[in-house]
TrEMBL record:
Coiled coil: none
GO biological process, alphabetically ordered: DNA repair
Record-given protein name: FA complementation group I
CDD domains: FANCI
Gene Ontology molecular-function annotations: DNA polymerase binding
Length: 1308
């Protein structure tokens, strides 16, 4: 064979081709193939030989063309076989590519078929010869005509058929990447490209996971031709399916206690990370690809289902955000997706209608947190985006500043609103990122501290919470960045007090293990002690008190004996190993000497110090001697030691004056309170010996003060009835300060004496002395209440009580629940005083209200949430017992006065307790309710809900008794309202799927149907409860229809000649309470929200539906709107009073027509995309709106305008301008309604053309215009004119000319 090869090469080198052609014609096909194969295998002169063969085989002759085809058909499988060296195979393919365009059409078709058959048979594993296929297809496409079957096709059509056949066949997984690479060089039409892309994407699931990244890379290169969205969606969809499968396998493994993993998790995450890098790299080079990627997700973010979002796509978005041009778009897109997800979740959770109609909600928050969790597998390109997104969410959705730029901190508790949930999500992302990724820790910490320092005018509680969580979860890691914390300390004097307190509380675990951090803090606090700003000095006091509480001297009470110490579960540090007892004691005494300087500062600083000292004493009892001596010396300055002098305190030094302004200088009561409270703490024997001196002196002072304060008259304090208490003058301000100090002193003495009497002996005489103290306090309080509002300034609220929360709890417990025989006679002194009992309950309600509004109460336990909660439980039990066990007849005397009864006070306290617990610690609500100890007999009387908390039983019984058993005269509106409010709060604890919930709503419906008291406020509360329960039970549209019928029946028709059929579905709606139409309209708005949300969801889904069948969502929307239109049809015929009801109804009608228009647009879209007929229900809905509602709307518009005009004419002249302005403002709703009706009709015309159904046959010509002619009004005017003319004819007869003149004058 070597001879043939040499001969061909030598002849090819010659100039004449004739001899070469003759020689080649003498060779048989087998000889030629054998020579070519040997040459290729040896790799010698193969290129020269092939050139010679092509030179001697002119394509114009059939012999030459066949020889060329033979060479192609032999060499292509040879190159694919892998027997040739790579360089030789590459040279051969290169030569074949050069000669391809010379081949005739039939030869090209055969070669193309050869490739297709080889691919189908799986013989293209190496893919070396596939480089030739694009050239063959290109040459094939340029052919004019090719035989195909019995006919002919153009080259382009033939190529399309080949590609279609190829994409429809089965591919060997090994050749998928090679084929994808090959198609990059094939000229493809958009349709052909779509075939190819769909085929490649279908092959993803059949490939090994490690082959996915190179295939994705080739697909991204292929995307330069088009189908970018399809390629990206396919990649994201594949990894979404993998994540779902892995999650399901993980759940199955947990259930079976086995590891069932098709693909190892770490391997999948690494592949995902590589693919993300490929896509980001491609987006950097191809901006069109990046834009298409974001466009697809913007469309997804508009959908309710968030179909394309998954942990992989979130990670991809965050990586793309590193490209500067896309950064803002990505974060806006993710922000919108997060807040929309939370809003949708809230909407679905609050509606049984939506829960039944739609599957479970897809949580974007979970996807983002899964992305954070997955990023631990080396996704460094994602972590930066996670940090940015976390802070972006916290900045955007964090608490907002209150009015006048003040940082209004809201109630701290569970995140409820979508904004709060989004802010919490940002914090969770940053906290998890801080734990997982070391490179971003410094940046997270720096940004958190920067925001704490710079956002002085905005609330920063969310950043404080995040910082605190970081300290608790990773304290040792944080110490590596302690320099950043130290830098923050330097800004303390400029920060708001709340921020400083939060920071100090957060860093206290670090102070125990870092001496440098503690030393830096002390240095800053010492400087702050001399700060010119009050908040700076308060910050210093806060910091020093914190150090005193946490650096214990040996021998102090254990934290379990006094209160819960703040510590970290990760910190196992014995402070005494680093700081011995002597060092700690010296350190604490040094701090105390610094704090004593505060005793000469403003009242606010002193007050903070006094309250803090008590907490320090509880935690660090070895400092008692020094602190008690400090407080005692402070008390001595204002105490009158002469036993015969009255009063026992000096009030003048307690105030200071600057010009005409008078200020409180010394809050006298707190140091006294801290002193005696300390005396009640159990001490050891040694401590008792040390403290015996100041304890005896303190008791002597308090006993003397008690005796002398009882003897004191108000004149001794210059506070009698003739004194001025107006806040508009300096004398009045001074007297107010004196009065508050004296009242506080009375309260401290009452608390001291009461607890002393309980612990020692209950003497009736001593309790009478206690009652005398109260009577003095009550007298002064009444004078202050009566006099304080007479000046220029408005009257202020009742001064806040200085009784502690714990004492108030003890007081009301003893007053109402103490049954011991030894105390009964003594306690009867207090129990028989109605004013004292009222005072005790009033203070309890005041303390609970303060806890509800601020999260803490004044006094020693303000920082101890657990103790405060225990007090709440005790007070709840007492208030509940007092309300359920004292008959209403006992309080008849109280009803005659213009103040609330004791039962109402109990109910108000219970309502505030339940509301506070639900807002601030919802996880403890069950524990709170379990403390109720209502008698079992009472609970058994009500069979309505046997498993509800006992609280609900007692309240229901009282509610039924107050509303049904008693008559109208005995009905207590305020008490009934409180009962309903409490039931509304307690009902939130029931699961809507529970039997108790069904029983609860059945009971509520029964009350609404049977109760007919004419009390608007009670009716509003009861209906609000009904709505809140009903919406979680079933769709509310039918309920709204019944209520609208009742309102129409009670208020009458806008046409006075029409008599409305009397019907009463709910007795609670009557003439006096029919104004609850506003409440009904608010529920209409809620139904419209749900319908609008459903329509928006459907518009983004293009699912096809079978002919004659209606989609369940469409059916539900149509039914809801149909019932709603019927309800609104009742309301628009109702003679509503002009004002808010009328305006709100006009607005709801406008919104209803707007949503009807949206539904019509949706059906236009459906008709345009698929040939589907309109559902019958929709046609009925259009008929209902056109023939029933729209004409009534125009009548109601006329009615509303007439009412407004008559209101204007009846107004007094001086009020006419104001009334006119209000009417002009209110009647803006009328043109908006008319416009929305016209838009609805406009799109109905368009839908009629699309669907070939005449929907306008139900519409009547609208008549309500500014130039309209009201026939009824015109007839009335003409009739009046005729009557006037008749009278005029009678007056103007010729026989009485003088009388005519006089009549004219009289008319004029």
């Amino acid at each position: 064979m070597k001879a043939e090869m040499d001969k061909i090469v030598s002849l090819a080198d010659g100039e004449s081709t004739t001899e070469l052609q003759k020689y080649l014609s003498t060779l048989t096909d087998n000889q030629l193939i054998t020579a070519t194969t040997n040459s290729a295998l040896k790799g010698k002169k193969v290129g020269a030989m092939l050139k010679g063969i092509f030179k001697g085989s002119p394509p114009v002759s059939s012999e030459g063309a066949n020889r060329r085809l033979l060479v192609y058909e032999h060499l292509i499988p040879l190159c694919e076989s892998g027997d040739l060296q790579a360089e030789v195979a590459a040279d051969i393919i290169g030569l074949l590519m050069l000669e391809t365009h010379a081949l005739p059409g039939p030869s090209l078709a055969k070669l193309a078929a050869l490739f297709v058959d080889a691919i189908k048979a799986g013989k293209m594993g190496s893919g070396k010869s596939l480089e030739l296929f694009p050239t063959i297809l290109t040459a094939l496409a340029s052919c004019e005509a090719l035989s195909y079957g019995k006919g002919e096709l153009s080259g382009e059509e033939y190529k399309k058929q080949l590609i279609n056949s190829l994409c429809s066949s089965r591919w060997d997984p090994q050749c998928v990447i090679h084929l994808t690479t090959m198609f990059r060089d094939v000229p493809l039409s958009s349709e052909e490209l779509q075939f190819v892309v769909e085929k490649v994407l279908r092959m993803f699931s059949k490939l090994d996971l490690q082959e996915i990244p190179p295939l994705v890379y080739q697909l991204l290169l292929l995307s330069a031709k088009g189908c970018k969205k399809q390629i990206l969606d396919g990649i994201v969809g594949y990894f979404r399916d993998q994540d779902i499968r892995q999650e399901e396998e993980q759940k199955d493994g947990e259930n079976l206690h086995l590891e069932v993993q098709t693909i190892p998790q770490d391997q999948l995450r690494h592949v995902e990370g590589t693919v993300i890098l490929h896509i980001v790299f491609a987006a950097r080079l191809d901006h069109e690809l990046g834009r298409e990627f974001l466009k697809s997700f913007k469309f997804v973010s508009l959908q309710t289902s968030n179909g394309n979002l998954c942990p992989f796509s979130v990670a991809l978005l965050l990586s793309v955000a590193r490209i500067q041009r896309y950064e803002e778009q990505v974060f806006d897109l993710l922000k919108g997706a997060v807040i929309k997800s939370f809003k949708d979740e809230q909407l679905q959770q609050g509606s049984k209608f939506l829960q039944d109609l739609l599957p479970g909600h897809c949580s974007v928050a979970k996807m983002i947190l899964d992305t954070v969790k997955n990023s631990v597998f080396g996704w460094d390109h994602v972590t930066q985006g996670l940090v940015q997104l976390g802070f972006f969410l916290m900045d955007t959705f964090g608490p907002k500043p209150g009015p006048f730029g003040k940082a209004a901190e809201g109630p701290v508790g569970a995140a409820r609103t979508p904004s709060q949930q989004a802010c919490k999500l940002g914090g969770q992302m940053l906290l998890q990122g801080f734990k997982m990724h070391e490179p971003i820790r410094g940046e997270i910490l720096e940004q958190v501290l920067n925001r704490l320092v710079t956002k002085t005018s905005s609330p920063v509680s969310h950043y404080l919470d995040l910082f605190s969580d970081i300290v608790i979860s990773a304290p040792m890691i944080l110490l590596e960045s302690s320099s950043k914390v130290t830098e923050t300390f330097d800004h303390f004097t400029y920060l708001p007090l709340a921020t400083v307190q939060g920071l100090l509380k957060a860093v206290q675990p670090l102070l125990k293990v870092s001496m440098s951090l503690k030393d830096s803090l002390i240095l800053v606090l010492r400087k702050a002690m001399f700060c010119s700003q009050l908040d700076g000095r308060k910050s210093a006091v806060t910091g020093f008190l914190l150090l005193l509480k946490n650096f214990k001297v040996l021998g102090s009470l254990a934290s379990s004996q006094c209160s819960q110490a703040v510590s970290s579960s990760q910190l196992q540090v014995d402070v005494h190993s680093r700081y011995n007892s002597a060092a700690n004691e010296a350190f604490c005494l040094e701090i105390l000497s610094s704090l004593r300087r505060c005793l000469g500062q403003q009242a606010d600083v002193r007050l903070m110090l006094y309250e803090g000292f008590y907490d320090v004493l509880r935690r660090n009892s070895q400092l008692a001697s020094s602190i008690m001596q400090t407080l005692l010396s402070q008390v001595r300055r204002y105490y009158e030691p002469e036993q015969d002098l009255l009063p026992p305190v000096k009030l003048e030094p307690c105030i200071t004056a600057q010009g005409d302004q008078v200020y409180l200088q010394e809050p006298l009561v707190p140091p006294s309170s801290s002193l005696w409270r300390r005396s009640h703490v159990r001490l050891g024997d040694d401590e008792e010996e040390e403290e015996e001196g100041y304890k005896s002196e303190l008791q002597a002072i308090l006993e003397s003060a008690t005796r002398r304060m009882i003897k004191c008259e108000l004149e001794d304090f210059e506070l009698d009835k003739s004194a001025e208490f107006s806040l508009g003058s300096s004398v009045g301000v001074k007297n107010n300060i004196y009065a508050v100090l004296v009242m506080g002193l009375y309260e401290v003495l009452m608390e001291y004496n009461f607890l002393k009497l309980l612990s020692l002996s209950c003497s009736k005489a001593r309790f009478e002395e206690l009652l005398q103290l109260f009577n003095r306090h009550h007298k002064l309080a009444e004078i202050l209440k009566e006099k304080s509002g007479k000046g220029r300034a408005p009257s202020h609220k009742t001064p806040r009580s200085l009784l502690s929360m714990g004492f108030v709890s003890t007081l009301i417990t003893v007053l109402f629940r103490d049954n011991s025989q030894s105390r009964e006679e003594a306690l009867s002194v207090l129990r028989s005083s109605g004013e004292f009992v009222r005072y005790a309950l009033s203070v309890a309600v005041q303390k609970i209200q303060q806890l509800e509004e601020t999260g803490h109460t004044d006094g020693p336990d303000r920082q101890h949430a657990d103790r405060t909660f225990r007090f709440l439980c005790d007070m709840t039990s007492v208030l509940m017992w007092r309300y359920t066990n004292i008959p209403g007849a006992v309080e008849e005397a109280g009803k005659k006065e213009k103040r609330c009864s004791l039962s109402q006070l109990c109910l108000e306290g219970l309502l505030r307790i339940f509301t506070t617990c639900q807002q601030r610690c919802p996880e403890k609500m069950a524990q709170l309710l379990s403390t109720m100890d209502v008698a079992e007999g009472e609970a058994e009387q009500d069979d309505v809900a046997s498993n509800l908390p006992n609280t609900s039983f007692a309240l229901k019984q009282r509610a039924l008794f107050a509303q049904l058993s008693g008559g109208e005269e005995e009905f207590n509106s305020r008490e009934a309202q409180l009962l309903v409010s409490i039931l509304a709060v307690l009902a939130r604890q029931l699961k809507p799927s529970s039997k108790q919930f069904v029983q609860m709503i059945t009971w509520t419906v029964k009350i609404c149907k049977e109760t007919s008291f004419e009390d608007a406020a009670f009716c509003k509360g009861l209906l609000s409860l009904l709505f809140s329960l009903h919406v979680l039970y079933k769709p509310p549209a039918s309920l709204l229809l019944e209520l609208c019928q009742d309102i129409h029946s009670q208020l009458g028709d806008i046409d006075q000649d029409v008599e409305v059929e009397k019907q009463s579905n709910f007795a609670v709606v009557n003439m006096k309470t029919a104004t609850t139409a506003l409440l009904v309209l608010s529920q209409v708005d809620r139904v419209l929200d749900e319908v609008d949300w459903l329509i928006a969801r459907k518009k983004t889904q293009t699912a096809s539906q079978a002919a004659g069948q209606q989609d369940p969502v469409e059916k539900a929307v149509t039914l809801q709107l149909g019932t709603l239109l019927t309800a609104l049809n009742e309301l628009v015929q109702t003679a509503l009073l002009p004002g808010n009801c009328t305006i709100t109804l006009l607005r709801e009608l406008t919104r209803t027509y707007t949503i009807l228009t949206t539904l019509v647009k949706y059906y236009i879209q459906v008709c345009a995309s698929q040939s589907a007929s309109l559902p019958n229900r929709f046609e009925k809905l259009v008929k209902l709106s056109g023939s029933h509602l729209t004409p009534q709307c125009y009548s109601f518009i006329t009615y509303a305008q007439v009412q407004s005009q008559s209101k204007l004419f009846t107004s007094a002249k001086e009020e006419k301008n104001r009334t006119l302005a209000k009417i002009l403002r209110d009647t803006k709703a009328i043109p908006n309604l008319i416009f929305s009706i016209e838009q609805y009709e406009k799109y109905l015309i368009a839908l009629s053309k699309k669907s070939k159904v005449n929907l306008m046959q139900y519409m009547k010509l609208s008549t309500s215009r500014d130039f309209r002619i009201n026939a009824a009004t015109l007839d009335a005017a003409l009739q009046e004119q005729e009557e006037a003319e008749v009278v005029s004819e009678d007056v103007t007869r010729p026989s009485h000319p003088k009388k005519k003149k006089s009549e004219r004058e009289s008319v004029q």
